[in-house]
Amino acid sequence: MSNAVNALVGLLKWPMALVMLVLLAPALLTLGRVGWQMLASPSPWWPLWAGTAVFALLWALWLRKTKTTNLLYTLEHELTHALFAVLTFNRVTDLNARRGTGHMAYEGRGNWLVSLAPYFFPTFCLPPLLALQFAVAAVQSWLLAMLGFALAMHVHATWHETHSHQPDLLRHGRLASWCILPGAMTAALVLVLAAVPGQSTRVWQTFSHTLDQTRRFVAHELAPTGLWAKDKIVRLAR
Q1: Cα 52 from Cα 35, distance rounded (Å)
Q2: Which H or E element spans position 132?
């Protein structure tokens, strides 16, 4: 089973790279517009901003001076590898995380999704997001703050871990990795915000509107070329 799934994921690598390249601009615009909406109407979002601010403050005052941060980053990184290994039917045989170093081993040939997942998927955001779906109003603010903290930590960790010499990115091809990751990172952030209870409609409407605007813009930019080509064909036919 795992070999078949790994082969299928392997076949999807370049189609996914193309999809992520196409979606990158709409996803970035959506993220910017949702961020602006969050600032313009801060009431539902202030706990998330507070959690983000707490991470930034702790980082400035303490986390950047301690090895605990490296342990948390490594733990999320290796857990994400393991999560996507299991999701693609590869049996995990070993997992450990230490300060600044970690290791995850599994049976099977693996696939690019297992290698790249830690650089776009915010695993530590899953517990607060899942809890938010069932939480009573009294604790939702606390869970949203936890989500903001986890999201800020993931973005910061990804910033430091993603570089051209990263073995995970080289394993399945540097070009494919850099085609996939920017769109996947941005899409993951949009999905996290869309998963917050009460916000999914707003986020998806913003994305849909942005995607339509992008399509219209591209069609408008290509139209002169298309008309020119059509006119040229007519003149040649004469």
Answers
A1: 13
A2: helix 126-132
Distance CA 154, CA 119 (A): 9
Distance CA 123, CA 55 (A): 17
Rounded-to-integer distance, Cα 186 and Cα 28, Å: 6
Query: What six digits make up the tokens of 11?
Result: 């076949």
What CA–CA distance (Å, rounded) separates 97 from 95?
A: 7
In a 10 Å sphere around its CB, with 0-12 CB exposed, 13-18 middle and 19+ buried, how is residue 65 labelled?
exposed
CB atoms within 10 A of CB 94: 10
With beta carbons less than 8 A apart as the criterion, state whether 71 and 102 touch. no
**Could you give the CA distance from residue 175 to residue 164 in angstroms, rounded to a whole number?**
10
For the entire predicted model, the pTM comes to: 0.86
Over residues 190-203, the mean pLDDT reads: 91
Which single residue is written with the structure tokens 């903001």?
148
Place of tokens 């995990």: 92
Tokens of 113: 């999704």
| Assigned token pair, 174 | 């540097």
Is 135 within 8 Å of 143 (Cβ atoms)? yes
144 vs 65 pLDDT, higher one: 144
Tokens for 50, please give them.
């507070």
The rounded distance, in Å, linking the Cα atoms of 238 and 234 is 6
